Amino acid sequence: MIRLEGRGAVYGEVWFEEELPREGGVDIVLYRQRRAPVPRSRVTPFLTMITDLAVAEDALIEQFGKDCRYKVRRADARDGLRVEFVVEPRERLEEFRAFFDTFARQKGVAPCDAKWLGAACDAGQLALASAAREDERLVWHAYLLSGSTAWLQYSASRYRDRDNAYRALVGRANRWLHWQVMLQARRMGLRRYDWGGLFEDESEPGRAGINRFKRDFGGEPARSFECALPVTARGRLYLPLREAWRRLRFAA
C-alpha cells in the first residue's frame, strides 16, 4: 500500500488486485486500476493499454509497428545507448524530478507529484529507468510495480530547441527504453506492461499523437476502474468535500 498524507485525510493506494492491509490506518482507500468496481465506492472508468509480456521475446517485438520496430533496432545497434533500471531509487528521485519538471515546463503540463514519488518509494513499489548516451540522460521513465504489472507513471524526454537529428535520436531512445524495460520486467517475472492510460477524447492533436505512439507497440486496450472508498468517519466527511473543491477548481 502507498500511504499518502492529504490535507484533511490519510489515503491508502492499492493497485490492481492488491488488498488493503488489515491495519491500514487510512481514511480513504484509493483502489487503482481495478478490474471491477469496488462496492460502495466512488467509481471512475479508466481506459488503458496493456502489453502482454508473457509471450516469447521475438513475438513481443513482432507486435510493434514496422516503423517502431525499426527505430528500436536501430537505437540498439547504432545509437550507443545505455539503460539504467533502478528498483531502489531513493537517491535518484531529485535527479528524476529535476529532469521531469524541466520537461513539464517546456510542454506546459503539470510537474511530477513529489509526495507520491516519495510515498511509492517508501512502499518499495517505485522503479526508475533512463536511457543515456555517453554522460547525457535523454529519457527518464517512472514505474509503479505491483503484482505482475509494471505501470508507466511518468515519461519525460529532452529534445526541445534541438536540431532534427537530435530530436530523432531522442525519439528512438524513448522507444528503445520502453523495450528495454519490457525485457527487464520479463526477467523480474512481471507479465503485464501497462501504458498508464489512453485518451478517450482524441480531438486534440497532442492527445491523438500520444495514443498513436502507445498503440504502435501493439498492446491491447483494456477498461479498468479507479475507486475511492472512505473507511472512517473522517474519510466519509472529507471525500465529498474534496470532490466538490476539485469541481470548482476545474470549472474556474
Question: What does it look like?
Answer:
With 252 residues, this protein is of the alpha+beta class. The chain folds into two domains: 2-46 and 225-251, no CATH class; 49-221, Aminopeptidase. 38% of the residues lie in helices and 30% in strands. Strands 1-2-3-10-4-9-8-7-6-5 form a ten-stranded mixed β-sheet. Helix 5 (164-187) links the parallel strand 8 and strand 9. Helix 2 packs across helix 5 (164-187).
Short description:
38% of the residues lie in helices and 30% in strands. With 252 residues, the protein is an alpha+beta fold.
- Estimate the global geometry from the Cα principal axes: globular
* Helical content (DSSP H or I, runs of 4+): 25-40%
The appropriate CATH architecture of the largest domain is 3-Layer(aba) Sandwich
Mean pLDDT: 94
If strands are numbered along the chain, what order do they take across the biggest sheet?
1-2-3-10-4-9-8-7-6-5
The CATH homology group name of the largest domain: Gcn5-related N-acetyltransferase (GNAT)
What class, by secondary structure content? alpha+beta
Q: What is the C-alpha radius of gyration, as a whole number of Å?
A: 19 Å
Question: What is the C-level CATH assignment of the largest domain?
Answer: Alpha Beta
In CATH, the topology of the largest domain is named Aminopeptidase
Gap between N and C termini, in Å? 34 Å
Number of helices: 7
Q: How many strands, which pairing sense, and closed or not: the largest β-sheet? A: 10 strands, mixed
Question: What count of domains describes the coordinates?
Answer: 2
